[in-house]
Specification:
Strand content: 15-25%
Strand order of the largest sheet: 6-2-1-10-22-21
CATH architecture of the largest domain: 3-Layer(bba) Sandwich
Keywords: FAD, Flavoprotein, Oxidoreductase
Protein name: FAD-dependent tricarballylate dehydrogenase TcuA
CATH superfamily of the largest domain: FAD/NAD(P)-binding domain
CATH topology of the largest domain: FAD/NAD(P)-binding domain
InterPro entries: CobZ (IPR012831), FAD-dep_OxRdtase_2_FAD-bd (IPR003953), FAD-oxidoreductase_2 (IPR050315), FAD/NAD-bd_sf (IPR036188), Succ_DH/fumarate_Rdtase_cat_sf (IPR027477)
Domain FAD-dependent oxidoreductase 2 FAD-binding: 3-427
Pfam families: FAD_binding_2
CATH class of the largest domain: Alpha Beta
Length: 459
């Protein structure tokens, strides 16, 4: 009988396991993936959004609670639990120090479209280094880690988890624990489940992260009468290079060129304002926008003036000497794309271009408009990138209390079950996204869940 059993192997799970072990509990962590692919989506991350009232470490200037809350409110459109959100924001202030104490190193933020030095702390070596540091810390503390172990069912009876059924290295294994922490993520890698809400369009989605995020634990808990939260049809989807692999392409497949380009669909028509807001607050809407176009594909079109304003794709840019030639290489109708570019160029009203701020370069008389960073596309070579929806995580999850305890549909908490990370993030992040906020939720609620699970086991 373990004191604490943690389901999952990403940031939230590791924070819970480490915290519970430091509180004196015996801890076993079950990671679905083999050791070489451990870490869930966390190994593809690179930063955490943290509140701070003064410059601290790699964080510059000030990023207080009010501004953080306002940023979250705008991207979610109010689809958030304010109490849990503010609690997360305040607790994020202590996260970098705790992370450093457990082996995570930080670096100054990168420049470019995601210049976040004032709001986000970047991990030296990225998410893989963070995951490795946490696993090393967990091992030093004496956490038992079982890799290649998929949880298939939590035996929930009379308001408590009685046993956890798994398949470990191909063999059935049942474990028991006084406390259980579910930190196994969403169902974004389960194309069949995505198809229930998106139809055949889901077949064209690319999954940016781990293929092990099948949602088995989430679906099992909901089937046992746990209260759900979040829209099952919502997902964090960004525009990524259409040439990316089906799974595990990671952050390098994302395309940051949208604010400095025009984006067209298969008919070569624009369909949304590419310059609506600064990229950290708007990049997460573009996956859904592309998902709604025919064939779930779109194309970013730009010219030589914009070529060095963003992080390039891991795949080579598609270049041409003319718009018609570029259209041919992208499989678009040359005349249609030439018409779209000509109309756009004619509508551009020059201003003071500033790639790092909401400038006054805009279009006039164009529908949809481009409200910032609008410059004519007229300088060869002309550049194109194909875009597809890249799914990071889903918003459907389980309802939790401020102590991370999981609630049943009747409002009563499960006596010995807590949740952290993507499986409960829908309580706070109902839609939209802020760069680095998922890691903040996982870190804060991972630590809460670990501490509460250990306390319960000790009692």
């Amino acid at each position: 009988m373990w004191d604490v059993l943690v389901v999952g192997g990403g940031n939230a799970a590791l924070c819970a396991a480490i915290t519970a072990r430091e509180a004196g509990a015996s801890v076993v962590l079950l990671e679905h993936a083999p050791r070489a692919f451990r870490g869930g989506n966390s190994r593809h991350t690179r930063n955490l959004r943290a509140m701070h009232d003064a410059p601290a470490g790699v964080l510059t200037d000030v990023y207080g609670e009010a501004e953080y809350w306002d940023d979250l409110l705008r991207v979610t459109g109010g689809a958030t639990d304010e109490h849990l959100a503010r609690m997360t924001i305040r607790a994020s202030a202590d996260a970098p120090a705790w992370m450093s104490a457990h082996g995570v190193n930080f670096q100054p933020s990168l420049t470019g479209t995601l210049n976040l030095g004032r709001t986000n702390a970047f991990f030296l070596g990225g998410g893989k280094a963070l995951v490795n540091a946490y696993f090393a810390a967990a091992e030093r503390l004496g956490v038992t880690i079982l890799y290649d172990t998929e949880v298939t069912d939590l035996e929930l009876d009379n308001g408590a988890v009685r046993a956890v059924n798994t398949v470990s290295r191909g063999f059935p294994l049942t474990l028991q624990a006084r406390s259980v922490v579910a930190a196994s993520g969403g169902f974004q890698a389960n194309i069949g489940w995505l198809r229930e809400y998106w139809g055949e369009a889901a077949d064209n989605f690319i999954i940016r992260g781990t293929p092990f995020a099948q949602g088995t634990v989430l679906r099992d808990l909901l089937g046992h009468g746990v209260q759900q939260v979040g829209d099952p049809a919502q997902c964090h989807a960004v525009a990524i290079d259409a040439r990316a692999p089906k799974f595990d392409g990671g952050i390098v497949t994302r395309l940051d060129c949208v604010p400095f380009s025009i984006v067209v669909d298969r008919a070569a028509w624009r369909f949304y304002d590419e310059g609506e807001d600064v990229w950290p607050k708007r990049y997460a809407i573009w996956g859904r926008l592309v998902a709604q176009r025919q064939g779930q594909i779109a194309y970013a079109i730009l010219d030589a003036k914009a070529a060095k304003l963003f992080m390039p794709s891991v795949f080579p840019a598609i270049r041409a000497g003319s718009i018609a030639e570029l259209a041919g290489k992208l499989g678009l109708d040359p005349a249609a794309l030439e018409t779209t570019v000509s109309r756009y160029n004619a509508s551009v009203r020059p201003g003071n271009f500033d790639s790092a701020a909401l400038d006054d370069c805009r279009t006039e008389g164009l529908d949809p408009p481009k409200t910032h960073w609008a410059r004519t596309i007229d300088t060869p070579p002309f550049i194109g990138y194909p875009l597809r929806p890249g799914i990071t995580f889903t918003y459907l999850g389980v309802k939790v209390t401020e102590r991370a305890q999981v609630l049943m549909r009747n409002g009563r908490p499960v006596a010995n079950l807590w949740a952290s990370g993507e499986i409960m993030a829908g309580n706070i992040l109902g839609k939209g996204y802020l760069a680095g906020f998922g890691m903040a939720i996982g870190t804060v609620f991972g630590r809460i869940a670990g501490a509460e699970a250990a306390r319960h086991a000790g009692n």
